[in-house]
Amino acid sequence: MSMAADPAHLQMILVFALIGVTLALYATEKLPLEVTSLGVICALMILFQALPVRDADGDNLLRPVVLLSGFANPALLTVLALLILGEGLNRTGALDRIAVVVHRLSRGSPLLSFLVVLLLVAVTSALLNNIPVVVIFIPIMQALAVRNDRSAGEYMMPLSFAAILGGMTTLIGSSTNLLVSSALIDMGERGFDFFSFTVPGLVVAACGLVYVIFLLPRLLPERHTTGTDLRATGSRQFKAQISVTSGSRFQGMAPVSGFFPKLPGVTVLSVERGSETHFPPYDEDLTLTDGDVMVIAATRDTLTDLFKSAPASLRPTLAADSDAGADHGAIDSDGRPVDGLESLAEVMIPPSSRLVGTTLDRAGFRYRHALAVLGVERRSRMLRQRLTEVPLEAGDILLIQGRRADIEALRGSQEVVLLEWSAEDLPQVHHAKRAALIFFGVVGAAASGIVPTEVAALSGATAMILSGALNLDEAIRAIDRNIIMLIAAALALGSAMQATGGADFLAVSLLAVFGDASQAVVLSAFFLLVAVLANILSTKATAVLFTPIAAAVAHHIDAPVEAFAVAVVFAANCSFASPVGYQTNLLVMAPGGYRFVDFVKAGAPLLVICWLAFSLFAPVWFGL
User: Fold this and answer.
1) Helix or strand (DSSP H, E) at 400
2) I need a labelling partner for 192 at 20 to 30 A (CA). Which of 155, 177, 350, 506 fits?
3) Using CA atoms, how far apart are residues 424 and 343, in angstroms rounded to an integer?
4) Alpha-carbon distance values, 567 to 67, 90, 524, 551 (Å)
5) Selection from 414, 260, 406, 264 nearest residue 337 by Cα
6) CA distance 452 to 460
7) What is the pLDDT of residues 136-172, one digit of tens each?
């Protein structure tokens, strides 16, 4: 009977064809990614309903419940929970301080800060699971991208790849490594020790990191995420004022050479002290003290950073604030909403507005709308008097702060026009400590084995919401539907390949082609086969599937089993050319604004580099 006529062979051929079509659709994006993923799952269910794969008892191995099980897979739920945890850290600004420290240590050099963080990621990944490491560093990388005036897309993919490379160096660096060791023990072979493959792992990781640090950012397209869209408008200067109060970070600041170097990115237009107004260049003895008011000009991003560190100082004091009966709406004495989520937005004053010609002091804008005005942009000229004393004009842009609900209530207002694109939730810095405690509690519980990773991650995501560090709407927005569909489709394809014998067929074909070649050549070819499949299937499925095949191939050509087992570890981790290969790629896909084809273009060269490094070093190390 020919292969095409054999139902088992036909099923395998159809699965290979479906994989090819799926990858082509992912790469070209002719259909939305989630539509392609859903279509793949439906095609598999229809295929194996018509051509079932029977086990010894006659049951269909690829029933719909099996192919749909990816939606309830613990790995998928863990990834979603970690996305929520990462969003909690980002929203509270819990890790901004690390970005500041790295930026200072690198003396403002974008390349040096990039190098420091990626090396730190690689070292940390050798001791912790890659997924929480990437989640920890995503907000740090986002903060560094802003500080270095770079696109987030230049930083996110290198972050994932550095974590994967670092995870190759020790037994606990990746769960894939542990799976291979466990499979070896189950087969009666010797498992790995903690540092069994550290030396070859360091060689492969070092070669890969050179590419990741110096070449990869040049291959990545600059795409605009929400953050970069806001930064694109960041060159506009808003006029604002800072009130210096006792104990604030501004008290005691003194000018150097006529300016304030401790306020980077801020132009101090004037300093008001009582009835006196000082203009630049400032005298060296003009040390800021309680009661001083600085009139400044800065971008929106800079004002946001200032607000995070000193919200009360950036909120202008109005004359009505001294009235005992003044109604402060929903804003407390620190400039924060007493309930609800803090947000920033921009509004424009139209010609017909009643605000034209009046000042913020007289307008009563804050008390009618429960929103504070942090800055005013006026393109015609730069004014040096207090923000509260500037008569407003048509066309002025106001930077406002308050609850999102109050900001949205401005739609349809006759006073101002809400610029919808400008709304941005502010980090809730007062929740930063609890968010950090929750996250590192999750990492500690998972790393120590007290509870399974999925239990720790889901519990932590729930705690992040219950603690107030993140609200339910934000948590839901943090979940990317592309990730859900990609993982579910990848798991379904992996199950189909395993059940139809597709992976076994590839391994047997490898031996048929390279069976008479040297051990080093067979090892190199085996590595490449596993690495390619790791980008189609999940790394864990590839590792579990190919560990027994690795042992069989090693015995067949009388080579050390350890060499082929290490090849499985490294090759299964080489999931660089596809976002579906490993969860860290999926985690950075949305923050980096990547498409499927970006991973193919940027990740395939890294896969080749790792393959060549292993193929050249492994024969020497293992004595082949």
Assistant:
1) strand 397-403
2) 506
3) 5
4) 29, 37, 8, 11
5) 406
6) 12
7) 787 778 777 776 777 778 888 999 999 999 989 887 7
Helices 33-50 and 481-500 sit at what angle, rounded to 10 degrees? 30
Looking up tokens 């996110």, which residue turns up? 156
Type of residue found at 255: P
Instruction: Give the tens place of pLDDT for each residue, 294-321.
Output: 888 888 878 877 777 777 777 766 555 5
| CB of 80 closer than 8 Å to CB of 484 | yes
- Tokens at residue 191, please? 């498992």
Q: Which of 306, 606, 531 is nearest to 427 (CA)?
A: 306
Query: Helices (H), strands (E): how many in the chain?
Result: 27, 8
Tokens of 477: 């927005």
Amino acid sitting at position 69: S
* C-beta of residue 175 within 8 angstroms of C-beta of residue 135: no
**Is this structure's pTM higher than 0.85?**
no
Smallest CA-to-CA distance from 174 within 214, 205, 208 is with 205
Classify residue 317 by its DSSP letter: P
Closest by CA position to 562, among listed 203, 198, 201, 197 = 197
Q: Does residue 192 contact residue 180 with C-beta atoms inside 8 Å?
A: yes
**What number of other Cβ atoms are within 10 A of residue 456's Cβ?**
24
Strands 276-278 and 267-273: antiparallel
Show the 3-state SS of 325-381: CCCCCCECCCCCECCCCEEEEEEECCCCCCCCCCCHHHHCHHHHHCCEEEEEECCCC
Angle at CA of residue 423, ends 392 and 320, nearest 5°: 40
Map residue 401 onto helix, strand or coil. Answer: strand
Side-chain half-sphere of 354: how many Cα atoms within 13 Å?
7
Q: What angle do CA 456, 459, 462 make, to 5 degrees?
A: 150
What's the Rg (C-alpha) of the chain? 29
**Single-letter amino acid code for the residue at 243:** S
CA 433 to CA 574: how far, in whole Å? 36
Long-range pairs, 187-192, Cβ under 8 A, ≥24: 187/547, 187/548, 187/551, 189/551, 189/561, 189/565, 190/561, 190/562, 192/565, 192/569
Scan for tokens 């590595």, then name that residue.
527
Closest-CA residue to 191 (of 178, 176, 181): 181
